Please model this.
Amino acid sequence: MIARVGERREGNRGGAPAGKEYHTQESEMRAWKGRVFAAAAVIVGATYLSSVVHHAGETNHPGFVSSAHAQPEPIRRLIDWLRGLTMPAGIVKTEGRIEATQVDVSSKYAGEVVDVAVQEGDKVAAGQVIARLSSQQLEAQLRNAESELRSAKEARAQDAIKAAEAKVEQIKSMISELTLVSPREGKVQYQLAHAGDSVAAGAPIVTLIDLTDVYMTVFLRAADAGRLATGDEARLILDAAPDYVVPAAVSFVASNAQSAPNAIETKDDLAKLMLRVDLKIDPKVVETYYGKVETGLRGAGFVRSRPDAKWPASSRSSAPST
Model:
């Protein structure tokens, strides 16, 4: 859950003279105006930068709809920012961060890393070679099994031959599994081992992000979360790209609160319960922008607590083309 850290200014409790209080208020007013001016400069600059990038074609994709088209005036953005965006009835806004299913690629058997064929940030396909290992232990077992097979053939012992052949094939299959492949399409998030490293059985060599399961985790009041169903429309606006609305859908709604409730719950206690909700990003959008997909990115999530609620103009979106 995301915690916001803010400042709280106490009133004039110390009985300071009125003149001092006046100067203090005047200083605070100047500081507030300075912050407003700075915010306006940041927003205007961000709007200009967004338009430049958009026209350059780097983020021009129907999966991302620029909110700048719906509300181009920087001063309107500033007003909305200062007042806080008031959502229409049936639309709920909450804060969250991007997460994704992580997949560890590891070996069933201990060995030494011969080479790693990918690097952090690489996109990989299902079945693509990730790394190769060698195992002196398995190679020694194979030599022994092959020797037993030769002896069985020399003795013309059919039962012994069949058993030795089965053992040889089994060990060869185990050695073939020392070549590690990606179990699914994804992006290499971490490389945890390098050529020459000795690794234990089950130790991850790389960690992948599953590009088909990227989502934002948010927390909603139980009353709002209870109205959601899997597949319901959602919208995301990332802090790193505030001018673009990302299409998403509800993929998970927790049935229990994240923290244990008190033994005796009042009506107010129940109203404060927060449930986890996952908003999955359209895989087509992730496919196009996989290079910018990073876990931990923060932003805002929007859901409809009423199916007949209309999306506000600043958060409308369209599905990416196929």
In short: Residues 219 and 259 are 12 Å apart (CA to CA). The longest helix spans residues 18-56. The longest strand covers residues 204-221. Confidence is low (pLDDT under 50) at residues 1-72, 259-264, 318-322.
